[in-house]
Amino acid sequence: MSPQDQAFLDDKPDLMDMGDAALNAETPAHLLDEPVTPTRLFFIRNNGAMPQCDLSPDAWTLRIDGEVDTPLTLSPAELAARFEIVTLSAVMECAGNGRAFFPRPTDGAVKWGLGAVGCARWTGVRLADILHEAGIGASARYIAHHSPDRDLERDAEALSRGLPLWKALSPETLVCFAMNGAPLEAVHGAPLRIVAPGFPGSAWQKWLAHIHVRDREHDGAKMTGYDYRLPTRPLVPGELPDVAEMAVIEDMPVKSLITAPPAGACIAAGGEIEIRGFAWSGHTPLARVEISCDSGISWRAARLEPTHERFAWSRFRFAWTPRETGEVTLVARAADARGRAQPLISAPWNPMGYNNNRCPRVTVAIG
Ligand SMILES: Nc1nc2c(c(=O)[nH]1)N[C@H]1C(S)=C(S)[C@@H](COP(=O)(O)O)O[C@H]1N2
Ligand SMILES: [Mo]
């Protein structure tokens, strides 16, 4: 990490440095105990070096070109003045969250545990409104995003991802300028970033400077090969399929997180405690959460608090009175409206270790 990266981290003492060459830091699970994750606790994931240019809104423009009728160049102030301003709550999760829990090792530099996820309030304008203003060409299929952050090893963009046109035009997809009611911080993509609820965090392009509308899937940095892609057929763990058998991740799986009690807590037998946390899913709505207080042998339904926002996470609560002393492993299991539940051991192995939505567990001591 550069001294500049270190200074950003020093500002966020609760985050855990992942020890990567770029700035990557996750949130301890027990600190994710609020419906809206405070920005000081929100994980940071950089693929390369922080941009070295001026990130103030006054110094910034967003260029929209490619398969459009009228290329546009707009400042953040013009965006906010010209289009309807929208605020929504949404979970952002890195596709690599949970990578550390694949039983067989995967590639992918950052071995995220549980905390490369958060739920924030995002404010911006709809990407669809901007694209309609530019006039979407008949040949448009995909949009490509470009930013000034650079790769740490090669003279190249660090990350240039994009969205299929259907997602670019969905009402929840934003060009965002504020997070939790304040202008975006530098580490979270100031002054403009993509918000693409339901897609992995990698699609939430930070420091967005250029949108190029294309007639085919984007092939920018970390769009091709094994990056942010899953196999289209089941693999034997360790197997490296042909890259033609890999497809871009366009949806996040159902998942949950236990935020209380914290792992390692000592709890008195006979007293009631609350097991709680959050559950969420991608484009298929969340349906239910179950809790096991015996390592996954028996399960009971948790109370799920309704959320009025489609892509926010939902609080679950479960009252529990431990009777016997000893070590106990608590497990949560969420399922989506298509009946797909979190796997107990691991999600299917894949080369880069994406989308491991295995059931979260915390082990506590009953005394
Ligand atoms: N320009 C740019 N955008 C980016 C990245 C990046 O390295 N460069 N990382 C992506 C990834 S992989 C994730 S998970 C999210 C993390 O956003 P955050 O750092 O605000 O939590 O940003 C995405 N947007
Ligand atoms: Mo990510």
Task: Give a short overview.
The chain has 367 residues and is mainly beta. It is 7% helix and 31% strand. The model has no long low-confidence stretch (mean pLDDT 97).
Keywords:
single chain, 367 residues, mainly beta, five-stranded mixed β-sheet, five-stranded antiparallel β-sheet, 4 helices, globular, binds ligand MTE, binds molybdenum atom
SSE order and pairing:
Elements: H1 3-10, E1 16-17, E2 24-26, E3 44-45, E4 62-66, E5 72-74, H2 76-82, E6 85-93, E7 117-126, H3 127-134, E8 142-146, E9 162-164, H4 165-168, E10 174-179, E11 182-183, E12 193-195, E13 210-214, E14 229-231, E15 246-248, E16 255-260, E17 266-267, E18 273-280, E19 286-292, E20 300-301, E21 303-304, E22 314-320, E23 326-336, E24 361-366
Parallel strand pairs: 4-13, 17-24
Antiparallel strand pairs: 1-2, 2-3, 4-5, 6-7, 7-10, 8-9, 8-13, 10-11, 10-12, 14-15, 16-18, 18-22, 19-20, 19-23, 21-22, 23-24
Bound molecules: the ligand Nc1nc2c(c(=O)[nH]1)N[C@H]1C(S)=C(S)[C@@H](COP(=O)(O)O)O[C@H]1N2 and molybdenum atom.
